[in-house]
Each structure stands twice: as structure tokens, then as C-alpha cells.
Amino acid sequence: MVIVTIKEWDTLQEIPETITSISQAAELTGLTEDTIRYYERIGLLPYAERKANGHRFYSRDQILGIIFLTRLKATGMTIEEMKHYRELSMQGNSTIPIRHSLLEKHNQKIQQEISRLMETQKIIEYKLNHYRDLSTNPDLSDTNCNPTTPSTNPLF
């Protein structure tokens, strides 16, 4: 799956007004064609408009919306929560306070996950430094706490 950064998000504004095929939409969003069709079928995405030949076509706004949904999903929002958010957005500006609240709560969850990941990263960096020290100084013992007792837990 393609991960779109903020910088790339700005670049996406250069997407043509109309995307001429589902394969182009898939390439731009990082989803498969089947996933896009599935999201349409379950109501997460509106059905794409169709040309006279029956082929789907998408607007730039639809592509940006799909990318936004992929970011919500990548950060742990469930499909049901995303569908609820989309349903609210379809109801217009009167639901902005509710949508704001939903995104605020989701953002808080993301911040908590970032904090947890940063703590995990610190632990891993500690172990990496420990192993780096061991590899550069063979006289050091690979122990957790007591330098005279070898570690008995192979995970540590």
C-alpha cells in the first residue's frame, strides 16, 4: 500500500480533474482495484460515475477522499467508523461538530499509539546500543543486570 505523506498530499492537488480508470485510481491511492470496488459495494465510497462504455471514472476530490480513508484505516479506524464518518459528511455542514469530535478522538488515539511506539523504540535503541557495545568490546558479558551471570533468557 502506498503511504501518502503531507508533502505528497500537497502534490496530489495536481491530479487531473478526472481519473479515467479504476486502475489509475488504484495506482494513485495504493489500493487494489478489488478493494476500491469492495469499498464502493459496502458504502464506504460512493459509486464512481461511469462513462458510456461502463468504465468507472473518478474526480480528484474522490481520489483525495479515498487517500484520506486509507490514512484513517492505517491508523486504526475501523471500516464501520469510517462509514459513519462518511455518512455524516454526506449530511452536510450541520454534522461538522460531530465529525470534528470523531476526528479529535481518533487523533488522540493516534497520539497515544505514537507515544507507545516511541517508548518501544527507546527500548530497542537501548538493546541496539548494548549489542553494539558487545560487538566492539568482546570482554563485555551479554547480561541484563549482573555482569557475572550470563543471560538465561534468549529474548533479552
From TrEMBL:
Organism field: Paenibacillus polymyxa
Q: Where is this region: Disordered?
A: 137-156
Name the domain of life this protein comes from: Bacteria
Which residue windows does the record flag with biased composition (Low complexity)? Answer: 143-156
Q: Where is the HTH merR-type domain?
A: 21-88
- Pfam families named in the record: MerR
Entry protein name: MerR family transcriptional regulator
> What GO molecular function terms would the record report?
DNA binding; DNA-binding transcription factor activity
CDD domains for this protein: HTH_YyaN
Give the keywords, sorted. Answer: DNA-binding
Give the lineage. Answer: Bacteria, Bacillati, Bacillota, Bacilli, Bacillales
Question: Sorted alphabetically, which InterPro entries does this protein's record hold?
Answer: DNA-bd_dom_put_sf, MerR-type_HTH_dom, MerR_fam
